TrEMBL record:
InterPro entries per UniProt: SpoIIM-like (IPR002798)
Keyword vocabulary terms for this entry: Membrane, Transmembrane, Transmembrane helix
Organism: Stutzerimonas stutzeri
Residue ranges of the TM segments: 104-126, 168-189, 194-214, 220-243, 263-289, 301-317
Domain of life: Bacteria
Pfam families: SpoIIM (PF01944)
UniProt name for this protein: Stage II sporulation protein M
Amino acid sequence: MKQSQFERQYRPEWLAFGERLDALERGKATPQDSLGFPAAYRRVCHQLALAQSRGYSPHATDHLQLLVQRGHQQLYRHHSPLTSRLLGFVLGGFGRLVRQEWRYVAVASLLFYTSLLGMAALVVLFPQLVYSLISPEQVAQMEAMYDPDTSRLGHFGERGSADDWVMFGYYVMHNIGIAFQMFAGGLLFGLGSLFYLLFNGLTIGAIAGHLTGIGYQQPFWSFVIGHGAFELTALTLAGAAGLKLGDALIAPGRLGRGEALRLAAAGGVRLIAGAAFMLLIAAFVEAYWSSMTYPSAPVKYAVGALLWVLVGLYLLLSGRSPRAAE
């Protein structure tokens, strides 16, 4: 069966199921809406499986996927409290979502890390280039933050361990703010997300190249390697969520731009939520581990490498069990 025939045959059923979901989600469902809901949900699941097995375009399967996700939430909402759903998302759903959106993640990662590493190499070769992005005052502040003689890395001036919780709050607000800029920038047809990915990559690269060039590479790299596994990964995921929104606006296919954006936002919001959770972990590591100077650099490099491996394994393997929670 051709995709157009498939859509014509089942579209009335999808519309009716969507209206039933709307009523259930608003809490205005009638007994008739609840009656037969499990059977209708199973039919939509079967139709999604058919569409995927026949290789229909994402414009058909994405809409069905959203209906199935919404139906799943309604079917199990009384049996799955919020805590269990959040735990299921962290343990399985987020990893599956990242793998599902691998194309956007790959593009965002390529933009971010290419600009970061490229700028770092250029600043090492041409030291004055750092001032094209960062003011002399900010450069001096960065040098003070990563001075090998400082008692706490990553902060301008001296501070005690009692101030770590203050820095934790600062890191959370600052990094999540950047992540949401990357995500919301997708509404400008993806240009905002593209700008923030490149700008942050270039800025971080300029700082890394400058500090490496003046001989501060050990305090700097031993500082960033630990929390960077969570922070840099989360920023690329936020950028990927924004690029997904932009793609829906640029190429909505057979759907209207509003409907295409709604479908893209369903996955994008979950992606940015997972990125925000990773940034919370990054802020904790940055405040309570990365800033410490008493662990030796080899120890911090080893811990950082382990964290990068764990993040990679989590995104690659979590949620692969057929019974893993959503």
